[in-house]
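note to self: dont lose this again. the chain is below, predicted strucutre after it. 123 aa total, dont forget to put it in the shared folder this time
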Amino acid sequence: MKNAMLGKKTVNELVELFTGFALQQDEAELAFDTKEGNRLFWKITAIADELKSRPGDQRHALLPLLDHPNPQVQLKAAKATLAIAPAAARHVLEVIAETCYGPQKLEAGMSLRNLDAGIFKPT
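---
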């Protein structure tokens, strides 16, 4: 998805796209489709970057996704909002690392480890 296309979307449309891509990424990871998972990673990242670039940093629109029923959506929302809501986002990462299985558990755990080591610095 081109950044110019994202620039024409409303914040709500971007949140819907973010959610949909995270759900698709969950399915791709469960199917061991790395190529599709990677493609969706870049789309999710582009949406978070677009929200960040908007006046007032519109990533706060992703905060309700921290309570989404799907752990992949929660994970992606937590990582995207660490800079603006560090306590809430970290809590979600901790819960996922402690209670989930599979790729979400691994990514949440590595994110926490890298945060604590200073390797991952949310912006």
